[in-house]
Amino acid sequence: MICSGVDVETGQPIEVEYERTIRAVRPGSVTDRYICPSFIDIQVNGFAGVDYNSPATPASEILRSIEVIRSTGVARFLPTVITGGPDDMLGALRNLARITSSAIEGFHVEGPHLSPEEGPRGAHPLRWIRVPDIAEYRRWQDATDGRVRIVTVSPHWDNATAYIEALASDGVTVSIGHTHASPDQIANAVAAGATMSTHLGNAAHAMIRKQPNYIWEQLAEDRLTASFIVDGIHIQRAFLKSCIRAKGVERSVLVTDASSPAGAKPGRYHLGEQAVDLTEDDHVVLAGTDRLAGSSLRMHHGVANLMKLAQLSLREAVRMATVNPARAANIPGRKRGLVVGERADVLVFRVENGEIQIESNSFIEP
């Protein structure tokens, strides 16, 4: 199979020949569309009306949602299970692990070892916030055949350092998030092996002290890659631009943090045990409140938003949706771009009036 277009990375027209992996990349002649690796989203709570946090979600519905996700340019993603009861979280992971799809690259567990404080906790239910438990983490891995790739944790807990060390030694990406941790606690987490910040700038107190604070500490730490929800709702333009300048594009990752309403019509949906509403202006909120509960962002819209809101180039925006998440989550075969030997996830698209128009998204099912 062959795809052609202008290579987003180099600006040169190329042809990519592939089967299960990329077999050849050579000069091409097509200049009216772009080509790049397909997108990777490392934080997806649900999509197309389908909730990944319910152990009872039918396999057919999960597979349907994956087809909608792929229409946004994504070839690989991490279904994300948030804070809930131990049995519900384990059941949701076991349910997702049964799905046979090359799109599911592994799993992201966001919680339950987060801050119990109002603000940093975000939409995670307070009654299920609990102390880090390595035995619980082992149960998640047993239920998924070792496919939990990212765990988001707040390092304010007394045993957080030992917990982070244990997960990092397994090759899991430990991400700091939903936290009110002190500078020393954040430093200790990084020393223990934490390498990422989950949707930095969100899940914070409405007011924080000028200095020190947990946002600046993570921004200043060069060993942490940061993910950002670029929907124009979760974080505003000036903050986004400042964060990416501080981190650098190479340490910045685009995520959707999509909840079940993403790709669906406004109305009532579920995120685990909680009801959520998709409003007419695309906010996903806990039902009856204005508290954000994930997003309705689609990945190709996020790439376009990076260019509009953060004034990134197309190349920079695409890197935040392709090689950067692959490196952050240690996804094999996706860390180098359109290179011989990499997996055959190839995206062809146009840019029209600042928007990404997907033409084809090639990927190989097992």
Low-confidence stretches are none
What is the number of independent domains? 1
The string of secondary-structure elements, in order, is: EEEEEEEHEHEHEHEHEHEHEEEEHHHEE
What is the name of the CATH topology?
A: TIM Barrel
Report how far apart the termini are: 17 Å
Q: Please give the number of β-strands.
A: 19
CATH architecture: Alpha-Beta Barrel
Strand content: 25-35%
Query: So, the CATH homologous superfamily?
Result: Metal-dependent hydrolases
Proportion of residues in helical segments: 25-40%
Coarse morphology: globular
Order of strands, main sheet, comes to 5-8-9-10-11-12-13-14
Main CATH class: Alpha Beta
Structural class: alpha/beta
Mean pLDDT: 97
Tell me the major beta sheet: 8 strands, parallel
Radius of gyration: 19 Å
* Oligomeric status: single chain
The number of helices is 10
Short structural summary:
The protein is α/β, with parallel strands linked by helices and 366 residues long.
Overview of this protein structure:
The protein has 10 helices and 19 strands. With 366 residues, the chain is of the alpha/beta class. The strands form 4 sheets. It has an 8-stranded parallel sheet. A hairpin with a 3-residue loop joins strand 2 and strand 3. It is globular, with a radius of gyration of 19 Å. The two termini are 17 Å apart.
